[in-house]
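Take a protein:
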Amino acid sequence: MPGVFQLSVDQAVREAAAAKADGVNAVLLFGLPAQKDVYGSGASDPDAPVQSAIRALKREVRDLIVITDVCLCEYTSHGHCGIVEGDEIVNDITVTHLAKAALSHAVAGADVVAPSDMMDGRVAAIRQALDERGFEQTAIMAYAAKYCSGFYGPFREAADSTPQFGDRRSHQLDPANIEEALREVEIDIAEGADIVMVKPALPYLDVLTKVKERFGQPTAAYQVSGEYSMLKAAAQNGWLDERRVMFETLTGIRRAGADMIITYYAREAARALAHV
């Protein structure tokens, strides 16, 4: 993706400091381990890239909110979001591993952990694990309405997390189904989510609006890699005014109900807003 790169810990610190100076007050971290295995065991390694980056960011960048993605897909050799037996993801064992990973992020200093796996019961398990270790103030941002979308392609290529077999329809939402999304959001709130998320953003603005209107919970929307990349590609071909459509799409997401937007345009938008 243009303008988006994999970063070492020291590079991530420099990028985050520059983003903070531009007016971006929070970052969401994803990690790529040196090695992957079938269990995604690197997700909870205290010396893994995410945990190392959290410590460095908290040490070097004052008042930056550090949010961490909690999933196994970047750490498993097969690319799935959980532990696999045969051709199926085993929910409960996966949840145990996710809670362990989230706790390792909190220990490193994360302000918010963000489970993106869509396993059943993972928010409750993470909340319990955090509370038992004294991390009651660590917030949970749940990917509560995460759809099985074709817009994740560029990210999966960058993170080498495309499933080697099958797909993620067993746990991510059917794009045609809004009622299930609302049920999932309700469950995550009941289990202790402080923030709920709709992902992707633009194709699901109606879902975003209904989530905000029905639950009134702090609500995030994720403008994902495919959304960002198609705007970049169109702009590079001279088909769109990039600055204009960047603001138009971000405004649409905000208007639909998002209290916060996760976007690869964050620094670009912040710099542009500073000169409005």
